[in-house]
Design a protein that fits this description.
The structure is a single chain. By secondary structure, the protein is mostly beta strands. The protein is built from four helices and 33 strands. The strands form seven sheets. It has a seven-stranded mixed sheet, covered by helices on one side. Strands 12-16-15-14-13 form a five-stranded antiparallel sheet, with no helix packed on it. Strands 17-21-20-19-18 form a five-stranded antiparallel sheet, with no helix packed on it. The longest helix is centred in the first third of the chain and has 17 residues, at about 135-150. The protein is globular.
């Protein structure tokens, strides 16, 4: 057996968000324990979740998984916000909010996500940073379980699932949305479906079975997984199917759903005029249509892609792929987890979530400039000029006909207004409480908001500023 050191016990001050009784490592002897350190804003942590679910299923008779949330943003210090993220991401193992980074420091972790493997005797066996290492984890966990069995230490009972669920409501963590003069399309992300509603909230059609999956079909006979961004062109509604790493297309006339970009697997390529349905993309989140081009934000690849709808070919418009805030021409510029996107003439407005920034992309040459934001760890809640204004993990963006840009300043629970001309930023004075708003759309004289963490859509009248809940499906 390799030389190993004892794993530190969970400190008494940890706030366990989805279990009533705090687990203790000393009570898990005989089992292999995987502790993973994560932050719920981080796309690479999202990408680790399918691997964790696979491991929990494969090694149900000997593995315990425990999540330790270590926050990047002040808003994430609230354990209630972490519980919402746990439920949104459908995590079913115990999670603690380590807001003071106590365990992070004890285990000398330096990156999100990171997994720590602890053997049946409570000794640290390995630290595995990053995503995309399923096979490595399979081999190491299998070895540790076999080792425990050979030494007659192994416990075979299944791990106890953890749950503190959301209330049953018509919507579950709605993501992005799209309003027209008469209709409202909602990415009901937690229910893995897209809804077509009228402005009074009556559901007209449902696309997606409401079970997570990846298959084509018609209306409810298809599968989505955490759908997000929406864009409309003629009779087609495009959907950023984030959890399936794909862009889907709904033919509204008949309700047929098909894939137009992606393979269902996360991408790491830099495509140039590639066949779109053969090209993997990582975590598409935002969509915008201009003429015959569809523009897609790839959150995990830190890029903006351009899909030629006529030719079915895809390439990169902007982004080196590096995780940073850097202006410049096309493939010299860098993004940090771009999430929302909106057209502005022959330009694109992009919210760069991880840098708490608003970016502008010029279509003719791909030049990227920053309108608000200064760095990956420069965030806050402040109005002001382009240089002094601060946001906190913005998730979506929209522009009204007057040229006012609205930003879903998600972790501040606000909508910010940005003047493209002056660069001034201010918070809208709304009569409505927002909790991690994730989607925006403008139509019919109103700003439509996905009030994500309270499972609702809100309509703000642009002339009066009065907000009203839209009773979808009620």
């Amino acid at each position: 057996m390799d030389s190993r050191s004892p794993a530190p016990e969970f400190p008494a001050g940890l706030d366990w968000v989805n279990v009533s009784e705090a687990p203790m490592l000393s009570g898990l002897r005989g089992r292999v324990v995987l502790i993973w350190f994560w932050s719920y804003d981080n796309v690479h942590c999202w990408n680790l979740l399918p691997d964790l679910a696979y491991l929990e299923s494969r090694y149900h008779d000997g593995l315990t998984v425990i999540g330790i949330h270590t926050p990047k943003y002040p808003h994430q210090h609230e354990s209630g916000a972490v519980l919402k993220a746990v439920n949104r991401l459908q995590i079913r193992h115990p999670v603690a909010n380590d807001k003071d980074f106590a365990l992070w420091q004890h285990y000398a972790i330096d990156a999100w996500p990171s997994a720590v493997l602890i053997d049946a005797e409570g000794q640290i066996a390995a630290v595995v940073p990053g995503e995309g290492r399923r096979q490595d984890l399979v081999e190491q966990i299998g070895h540790l379980l076999d080792e425990a069995a050979e030494r007659d230490l192994r416990e075979y009972d299944a791990a106890t699932p953890a749950a503190r669920p959301e209330p049953r409501l018509p919507l579950l963590f709605p993501g992005k949305l799209l309003a027209t003069d008469t209709l409202l399309y909602v990415a009901d992300s937690g229910h893995h479906r897209v809804l077509e509603c009228n402005h009074d909230g009556r559901i007209l059609r449902q696309f997606g079975s409401a079970d997570p999956g990846y298959w084509n079909g018609r209306n409810e006979e298809c599968g989505f997984r955490d759908p997000q961004g929406l864009a409309l062109r003629d009779d087609f509604l495009f959907v950023a199917d984030r959890g399936n790493h794909a862009v889907r297309r709904i033919r509204l006339y008949g309700g047929d759903v098909e894939t137009v970009l992606g393979t269902g697997e996360p991408g790491r390529l830099r495509p140039h005029a590639a066949i779109a349905t053969e090209t993997p993309i990582g975590n598409p989140t935002g969509l915008a249509v201009i003429a015959d081009k569809l523009y897609v934000t790839s959150a995990s690849q830190n890029q903006i892609w351009e899909l030629d709808l006529g030719r079915g070919r895809v390439g990169m418009l902007a982004g080196t792929g590096k995780f940073e805030l850097q202006d410049g021409l096309s493939l010299e510029a860098s993004f940090a987890q771009p999430s929302g996107i909106a057209p502005s003439g022959l330009q694109l407005l992009v919210v760069d979530s991880a840098s708490s920034a608003v970016r502008l992309v010029r279509l003719n040459d791909g030049r990227v400039t920053t309108l608000v934001g200064t760095g990956l760890y420069e965030f806050g809640d402040a109005p002001g000029t382009r240089e002094t204004a601060r946001l906190q993990n913005p998730l979506d963006i929209a522009m009204d006909p007057r040229g006012i840009i609205f930003v879903a300043d998600s972790y501040n629970g606000k909508i910010k207004a940005l003047s493209l001309k002056s660069g001034a930023v201010r918070a809208l004075n709304l009569n409505y409480r927002l909790v991690e708003p994730g989607g925006l759309s403008i139509a019919a004289g109103a700003l439509w908001i996905a009030n994500t963490n309270v499972h609702e859509v809100v309509r703000i009248d642009l002339s009066s500023g009065v907000g009203k809940r839209v009773p979808i499906g009620e």
